[in-house]
Specification:
- This protein is mostly helical.
- It contains three helices and no strands.
- It is elongated and about 75 Å long.
């Protein structure tokens, strides 16, 4: 394990109880393990969020670079006309 640094944090009574319960039922060997696992999950969540944001930015750039847009109302007007003509046949 890397160098260990002790810190303290205040949590609500409910959170403290949840951590104690996790240890008591055998899911974790200690409160320290509960906190480390929660921090790993938090880090993963932040990493995934950053990746999702990067992907959204990439997709927006791809869309911007894909050429001129088409007016949505014009597209729907054409589709309505097309399907109305098909229904008349």
């Amino acid at each position: 394990m890397a160098t260990v640094e002790k810190i303290s944090a205040a949590v609500s009574a409910e959170m403290a109880g949840t951590m104690r319960d996790a240890v008591a039922c055998g899911d974790y060997a200690s409160i320290d393990e509960v906190v480390r696992d929660a921090l790993r999950d938090w880090q993963l969540k932040r990493h995934v969020a950053a990746m999702e944001l990067a992907e959204l930015r990439r997709l927006i750039e791809e869309g911007d670079n894909s050429g001129p847009g088409i007016d949505g109302e014009l597209v729907f007007e054409r589709l309505r006309a097309k399907y109305a003509a098909m229904a008349d046949e």
